[in-house]
Design goal:
Elements: E1 17-18, E2 34-38, H1 39-42, E3 48-55, E4 66-67, E5 72-78, E6 82-85, E7 88-91, E8 97-100, E9 108-111, E10 118-125, E11 131-134, E12 139-144, E13 147-151
Antiparallel strand pairs: 1-2, 2-3, 3-10, 4-11, 5-8, 5-10, 6-7, 6-9, 11-12, 12-13
Length: 158
């Protein structure tokens, strides 16, 4: 019988990094200094995604947003990012974690306000039909047909 075990192990830094974003302009320009390694995609995971993300000094993780159907979890590996939420900001350190339940309406993002790189894991499920709202920007994202589609808050497309 043939071996069908596709389990493999690699150092996370061996997974190709991407510094591009799916945000439309002018928002894409705000993602300079962010680099993601899509670990979940690399291993073919279908139910949840895992990214190892590096933020250069002054970079942000994403536009501040909330998800309708996707739970989000972060775990800090290196550095001291600031977690910004609707209720304020908190400086995180290695070993700290934070989670935002789907549908909570809590909008958040991370910002590297230091002079050292930040590295963290971000984990989210891949629930179909998710929608992300961005309270600080004229942007809404709808996950349909396996990809994110961006529109203005009035429903017109980017």
């Amino acid at each position: 019988m043939a071996n069908t075990d596709t389990t493999r192990a690699v150092a996370a830094d061996e997974v190709p990094a991407r510094s591009t974003t799916i945000y439309p302009q002018p928002f894409a320009a705000r993602m300079v200094g962010r680099e993601k390694r899509a670990l979940g995609d690399f291993f073919g995971l279908k139910n949840f995604g895992i990214n190892q993300t590096r933020l250069a000094p002054k970079a942000i993780s994403a536009l501040r947003h909330s998800h309708a159907r996707q739970d989000e979890f972060i775990y800090i590996l290196q550095g001291h990012p600031t977690l910004h939420t609707d209720t304020g900001s908190i400086r995180l350190s290695p070993g700290m974690c934070a989670g935002v339940p789907a549908g909570s309406g809590i909008a958040c993002n991370l910002e590297n306000e230091t002079t050292e790189d930040v590295v963290y894991l971000e984990i989210g499920d891949r629930t179909p039909g998710d929608q992300a709202t961005y309270p600080d920007d004229d942007l809404v994202a709808v996950h349909a047909h396996g990809q994110w589609q961006f529109q203005h808050k009035d429903g017109s497309p980017y």
